[in-house]
Automatic annotation (TrEMBL):
Stretches that traverse the bilayer: 25-47, 229-250
InterPro entries: Bact_polysacc_biosynth/exp (IPR050445), P-loop_NTPase (IPR027417)
UniProt-listed SUPFAM superfamilies: P-loop containing nucleoside triphosphate hydrolases
Keyword terms, alphabetized: Membrane, Transmembrane, Transmembrane helix
PANTHER family: CAPSULAR EXOPOLYSACCHARIDE FAMILY, TYROSINE-PROTEIN KINASE
Stored Gene3D superfamilies: P-loop containing nucleotide triphosphate hydrolases
Protein name: Lipopolysaccharide biosynthesis protein
Length: 529
């Protein structure tokens, strides 16, 4: 048992990865925002460094750890480069450099911030790198600090020579004083010591006190320092892409909307019978099957076939098409499902049990009443025949809604539904399940419920709650239809908003009967709102 399960999990990993990538790509706006921020950051960094120039000068430091007595000291141990590096970065050198550049002593600290001093390992060369806004100032600053360091070191060496000279001079005076009082034998030894001290004094006076040599002078740079525009923009693009993926992952983790068929199946534990693709919103017509082609029309035809395979028996039954909340295309799904079933050769009755919306018969191509066949004469009173084009025709029984709130007697529609002995397949469309109790009562009397959810608009918890309500009431969820929506024309969207403004809505006409669906008998109940 362990082996097959392990293999199954291993082969599921690519599917999980693809699903995660799809969820991230659902938030393309967050990824685009991250990329834009990264590019802006790279461009800002490039602009800030586009006027910055760097020049470098190098100084060879002479071995002067003990400049007056270094006979037995190795050259590598005669100078501490770490100490010299700290001295070069000190305030005394910065003040000298500021004076050389013609600036006040108070600006020495600011100049020191633009200086960087480095020393390679096992090297007696100090590198002075100075950064400025112009190429000329960068070269002047690098040379000024190198010369200021050498001048400071020269002063320190001269001071050391003076101290050494004073010490030797005092020793000479002491020896001369002893020589006056000494005898001939001692006088000869003191004279020898005195000669050595005089040679030492000559050596101190003749010693070169220069601290080093400038082996490389700072040159005027031809280009700004740092990475170029291309490098910074590429780095900004990479960083922005990483930021965008992080933002998309956060949005995906916090998003509760249904983004894929896998999420819908996980929430409902039922199959996804149809995934309506996104198409251009060319017109407001509901009926597509039999009148026009396209991927959505083919999806409706496949949906009708899958309903047969899922739970309906040979075209007989009562199917309730409902959405958890407003916003889903329940009417479009119900109308086109009826047309697709009619195209399969079934006799279909489309029942509009939503009194809160305009009647479906006002938005469908109708046939005249005299076009009824003898078999269609038994249709419920008030029903109309719909011309489904090449798919045939079906009957539509509308509740006569006007778009106004449901009248007080509207709930009478839920007490009756076509009987099981009725030879027609009833496709019933009603109000959202989580917003109206009548929808749940209809779900109890239907042979199966088809939930319609908007891809990217319906929340997972709404689907789960709708499934629980239907299951607790004894209903059966046949499956889910996911609608990817339509690509709205901006002008058409503005016109739709204007039509929904106060004063432009549909005018309430005379009181219209609300159709109640037949139940166990074939009587028709009508209530007045």
């Amino acid at each position: 048992m362990t082996g097959p399960t392990h293999v199954h999990d291993r082969y599921d990993e690519p599917d999980q990865l693809r699903d995660q990538i799809r969820r991230l790509l659902c938030h393309r706006g967050a990824i685009a925002l991250g990329v834009v921020l990264g590019l802006l950051g790279g461009a800002a960094l490039a602009l800030s460094r586009s006027h910055t120039y760097t020049s470098t000068s190098e100084v060879l430091v002479r071995s002067t750890a003990d400049p007056f007595g270094t006979v037995s000291v190795a050259a590598d141990n005669q100078v501490s480069m770490g100490t010299e590096q700290q001295i070069a970065a000190g305030a005394a050198v910065a003040v000298r450099a500021a004076r050389a550049l013609g600036q006040a002593d108070g600006k020495a600290a600011a100049l020191g911030k633009d200086l960087r001093i480095t020393n390679r390992a096992k090297s007696q060369v100090l590198r002075f790198t100075f950064t400025a806004r112009t190429p000329q100032n960068a070269a002047r600053g690098a040379n000024a600090f190198a010369e200021a360091y050498l001048a400071d070191r020269k002063v320190r060496n001269e001071a050391a020579a003076q101290r050494a000279g004073r010490s030797v001079q005092e020793q000479i005076k002491a020896v001369q004083a002893k020589k006056k009082d000494a005898g001939d034998a001692v006088e000869k030894a003191l004279q020898t010591e005195l000669d050595a001290l005089h040679r030492r004094m000559v050596e101190i006076n003749s010693r070169d006190t220069d601290g080093g040599d400038i082996v490389r002078r700072g040159e005027v740079p031809a280009r700004p320092s740092g990475p170029g525009w291309t490098t910074l923009l590429v780095l900004g693009l990479a960083g922005g892409l990483a930021l965008g993926i992080l933002l998309a992952w956060l949005r995906s983790a916090l998003d509760t909307r249904v983004r894929s068929a896998q999420e819908a199946r996980a929430a409902l534990r039922t199959p996804v019978l149809g995934l309506l693709p996104r198409e251009a919103d060319e017109d407001d017509a509901l009926l597509r099957v039999g009148h026009r082609g396209g991927d959505r029309a083919q999806t409706y035809r496949a949906l009708a076939y899958r309903l047969h395979r899922t739970g309906l028996s040979a075209g007989l039954g009562r199917v309730l098409v409902v959405a958890p909340r407003h916003g889903a295309a329940t009417e479009e799904v119900a109308v086109n499902l009826a047309a697709a079933l009619a195209e399969c050769g079934e006799e279909v009755l489309l029942v509009d049990a939503d009194p809160g919306t305009p009647a479906l018969t006002t938005r469908l191509p109708l046939l005249p009443d005299d076009a009824r066949t003898p078999r269609e004469a038994s249709l419920p009173e008030g029903s109309r025949l719909v011309d489904a084009g090449t798919a045939g025709r079906f009957a539509c029984w509308s509740g006569g809604g006007t778009g106004a709130p449901a009248p007080a007697g509207g709930s009478a529609a839920v007490h009756r539904m076509p009987t099981e002995s009725d030879a027609r397949t009833a496709v019933v469309v009603t109000r959202p399940l989580l917003e109206d109790a009548d929808a749940l009562a209809l779900a109890q009397r239907a042979d199966g419920v088809l939930l319609v959810a908007g891809l990217g608009t319906t929340r997972r918890e709404d689907l789960e709650r709708a499934h629980e309500l239907i299951d607790c009431s004894g209903g059966t969820v046949l499956g889910t239809v996911l609608d990817a929506g339509r690509r709205q024309d901006p002008l058409r969207a503005v016109q739709a908003v204007l039509r929904r403004r106060p004063g432009r809505g549909p005018q309430a006409g005379p009181t219209t009967p609300v159709v109640a669906l037949p139940a166990q008998d074939e009587t028709l109940t009508v209530s007045r709102g």
